[in-house]
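Hi there,

I know you've been waiting on this one. I reran it after we fixed the sequence typo, so this is the corrected version. Both the input and the resulting structure follow.
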Amino acid sequence: MNPHKKGVNPHKKGVKTTQKGSESTLLNKCVDLFYLSRYYFCVMNMKITKSNAIINSSYRFSLNELRIVLYGLSHIDPTTDDFPLFHRIHIKELAEFYNIGDKDRGSFYDNIREALVTKFWEREFSYFDEERKATVKRRWLIEVEYGAKNGSLAYHYNPLIKNQLQKLAKRFTSYFLSNVSNMKSAYSMRIYEVAVMYLNASGKSKTTFNKNIEDLKQQLDISEKYKHFYHMKSRVLEHARKEINKHSDINIIYKIIKLGRSPNEIEFTVSRKAKTQSLPALTQTPSQKLTPSIFEKAKKIALEAGTGWDIYSIEQQFYEHIRKKGPPDSLELAFLGFVKKKVINPP
């Protein structure tokens, strides 16, 4: 019996739940609870809260909408909490950011414009406002600009959702943009994020976790798609596995667990690649490498802060920061200062 099945109470007398090792089972349950509480509505009162409604909405973005958002986030200074509401996109720069070849740039511009003007412009979300005791509906954007002679596009976020956008920015940048910028599938990006969350939660360089297939489809916003599992496997799982292993800082494999004859769960195994594979080219210069002792100090600072930061995520953000700002006089002191500032608040 599936304890997560609708109408089944796992705590009710007579209902048994299976355990595959107490430690791994507890970890999976903890991460599941964290994930659901952060990205989905509370089942107890069926009200989407203001804090997670915008994050919930972001999971419905198409690939090109994600590209627009991620590109804008890549230009935000990670050391500040300020979130710029106005963003201008130059298609040439955007295409270079996502490694789009010259022959595909004409259609790329049309696709990005279409995503901005007809999809992103129409995006909205609702939440229950506790103070007003009413449901509030808001749009992401208040203005879009297109058709400029220089081939640029622009958009202006709704200032009423600025605080929520800041939280969304921290969520995206916490897994380093360069790891997803070359992915061509929005599902690859989402599965990557889920995998990294489990990996960080384990505190190890390798971990295994199980996801119920229906739960995963809900998280990927494909509950109404891929009625036949083999379509989901070939178009979502296999595609995501190849892109994640090729372009990101982790490796991922999976196997299907059946209940009787039907696929029921997916067991993912995730491992972190060697550090030099995932960092920007700047780290390949020996004189600019962090010493193990400094890295351990930084790791201790992050652990003692207790705000949930993963030191590898901070390290990646640090290298991205100095890539934009230029190398500091002392790389190690700058890194420790960067870590202290980041861990004050949770990611």
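Quick highlight: The CA atoms of residues 98 and 182 lie 6 Å apart.

Best,
R. S.
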